[in-house]
C-alpha cells in the first residue's frame, strides 16, 4: 500500500516527552477520507497512553482522538463528505462491522475488537494506529463525522470524546425533561455532562467535595451543587436522582452516591477503570433496585446524533487553546486539574 510521510508529535517511551517525529499515513483507498487536521483536543487518555499508565502502550505512540479538520481527499466510493467539508474523527477508526454490537451501531463494544484512533491495530499498514497530534489522518468514511457548520471548530473537538462519553449514558438511560441527573466531578467530562443533560431538559446537580466550583457549575447550567463531604447536604438528596454520571478518573468511594439514587436509579462510571475501593455495598442496590453501571464513549451513529444535537443547541466545550510544542506542559497541568476544561491544540502550530 502506498504511503506518505506526515509530521507528528509522539513519544518513544513512557519516560520521554512528546516530541516531533515523522509517521506514515496510507494514501486514500476507495472508501477513505483524508483530513487535514486543524484542531485536536487533549484527553486524559492521551496522557495515560503516552506514559503507559495502562500498561498497554506500543511505542512510538502518537496520541489524539478529538480531531477536527478539513477534507482534502476522498476515495472513489465515498459519499458521506466532499473535499473542503469540515469533518471530525473521534476515538474509533475501525471495527469488525459484523458482530452483534457493530450491527446495532455499538462499534465501541465491537466483540472482535474496535480500533482506536491511536495505539490500535492498524489493519491497513500493520503496526499501530497514530492519532491526531499530526498533520493529517486517513480514515474509512464510516468512522468520519460531519461537523455542524455553526459550531466553533476548536471548541467542537472535545465533543468527540468528552462529549460522546457523557452523551451516551444520557441517551441510554433516557434522560429528558422530567429527569433528575447528578454529575460527580467537574472536569473535561463533567462540564460536558452538565451542558448536555441541561440541553436535554434535565434538572442537573453537581456533586463537589468543596464549594469552590459552585459558581462555575451554575454558569455551565447546573441547578444545584451538593457538597459531598457534608453529611447533611448528602442526606438532603437521599433517594433523589434517576441517573448519576461519575466522571472521577481515579479510585474513589461510590457508596455515598448510591444512596442518593431514586428507586430504579443508576450510577454510571465513565471516568475510572479498575477495582472499586472500598468495596461496593449491595444493600441499597437490592433494597431500591439501584444499579452501578459503566459506559464507554459511543458508536458512530450516536456520536453524529450528539454533534447534530450540539449544533441545534449551540453546545461546545470550554477550552484553552495551546500550541503543539506546549503539550508536555499541558500534561503536567492536567495532572494538577489546572485547565478549564479541555486543552485543544492549534495544529497550525505543528
Walkthrough of the structure:
The protein has 350 residues and is α/β, with parallel strands linked by helices. It has 2 domains: 3-161 and 318-349, Alpha-Beta Complex (Quinone Oxidoreductase, Chain A, domain 1); 163-294, 3-Layer(aba) Sandwich (Rossmann fold). Helix content is 24%, strand content 27%. The protein has helices at 44-50, 100-103, 153-156, 162-172, 188-199, 214-220, 231-235, 255-258, 283-288, 300-313, 327-335; strands spanning 3-10, 19-26, 32-42, 67-74, 86-89, 92-94, 115-116, 136-140, 145-146, 180-184, 203-208, 224-227, 241-246, 261-269, 291-294, 319-323, 342-346. Strands 3, 4, 5, 8, 9, 16 and 17 form a 7-stranded mixed β-sheet that branches. It has a 6-stranded parallel β-sheet with strand order 12-11-10-13-14-15. It has a two-stranded antiparallel ribbon with strand order 1-2. Helix 5 links the parallel strand 10 and strand 11. Helix 4 (162-172) crosses helix 5. The model has no long low-confidence stretch (mean pLDDT 96).
The value of Rg in angstroms is: 20 Å
CATH superfamily of the largest domain: Medium-chain alcohol dehydrogenases, catalytic domain
Q: What series of H and E elements makes up the topology? A: EEEHEEEHEEEHHEHEHEHEHEHEHEHE
Strand content: 25-35%
Helix share of residues? Answer: 10-25%
What is the CATH T-level topology of the largest domain? Quinone Oxidoreductase, Chain A, domain 1
Amino acid at each position: 500500500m502506498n504511503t506518505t510521510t506526515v509530521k507528528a508529535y509522539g513519544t518513544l517511551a513512557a519516560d520521554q516527552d512528546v516530541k516531533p517525529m515523522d509517521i506514515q499515513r496510507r494514501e486514500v483507498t476507495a472508501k477513505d477520507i483524508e483530513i487535514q487536521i486543524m484542531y485536536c483536543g487533549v484527553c486524559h487518555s492521551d496522557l495515560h497512553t503516552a506514559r503507559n499508565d495502562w500498561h498497554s502502550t506500543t511505542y512510538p505512540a502518537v496520541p489524539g482522538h478529538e480531531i477536527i479538520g478539513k477534507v482534502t481527499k476522498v476515495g472513489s466510493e465515498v459519499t458521506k463528505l466532499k473535499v473542503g467539508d469540515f469533518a471530525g474523527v473521534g476515538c474509533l477508526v475501525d471495527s469488525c462491522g459484523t458482530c452483534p454490537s457493530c450491527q446495532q451501531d455499538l462499534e465501541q463494544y465491537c466483540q472482535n475488537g474496535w480500533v482506536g484512533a491511536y495505539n490500535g491495530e492498524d489493519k491497513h499498514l500493520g503496526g499501530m494506529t497514530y492519532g491526531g497530534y499530526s498533520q493529517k489522518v486517513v480514515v474509512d468514511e464510516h468512522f468520519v463525522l460531519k461537523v455542524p457548520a455553526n459550531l466553533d471548530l476548536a471548541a467542537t473537538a472535545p465533543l468527540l470524546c468528552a462529549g460522546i462519553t457523557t452523551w451516551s449514558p444520557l441517551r441510554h438511560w433516557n434522560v429528558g425533561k422530567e429527569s433528575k441527573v447528578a454529575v460527580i466531578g467537574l472536569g473535561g467530562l463533567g462540564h460536558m455532562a452538565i451542558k448536555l443533560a441541561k440541553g436535554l431538559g434535565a434538572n442537573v446537580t453537581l456533586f463537589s467535595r468543596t464549594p469552590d466550583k459552585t459558581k462555575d457549575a451554575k454558569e455551565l447550567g447546573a441547578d444545584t451543587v451538593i457538597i459531598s463531604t457534608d453529611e447533611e447536604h448528602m442526606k438532603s438528596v437521599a433517594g433523589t436522582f434517576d441517573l448519576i454520571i461519575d466522571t472521577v478518573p481515579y479510585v474513589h468511594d461510590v457508596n455515598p452516591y448510591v444512596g442518593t439514587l431514586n428507586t430504579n436509579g443508576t450510577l454510571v462510571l465513565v471516568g475510572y477503570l479498575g477495582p472499586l475501593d472500598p468495596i461496593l455495598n449491595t444493600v441499597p442496590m437490592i433494597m431500591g433496585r439501584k444499579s452501578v453501571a459503566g459506559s464507554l464513549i459511543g458508536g458512530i451513529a450516536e456520536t453524529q446524533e450528539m454533534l447534530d444535537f450540539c449544533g441545534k443547541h449551540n453546545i461546545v466545550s470550554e477550552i484553552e487553546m495551546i500550541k503543539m510544542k506546549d503539550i508536555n506542559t499541558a500534561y503536567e497541568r492536567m495532572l494538577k486539574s489546572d485547565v478549564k476544561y479541555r486543552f485543544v491544540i492549534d495544529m497550525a502550530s505543528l
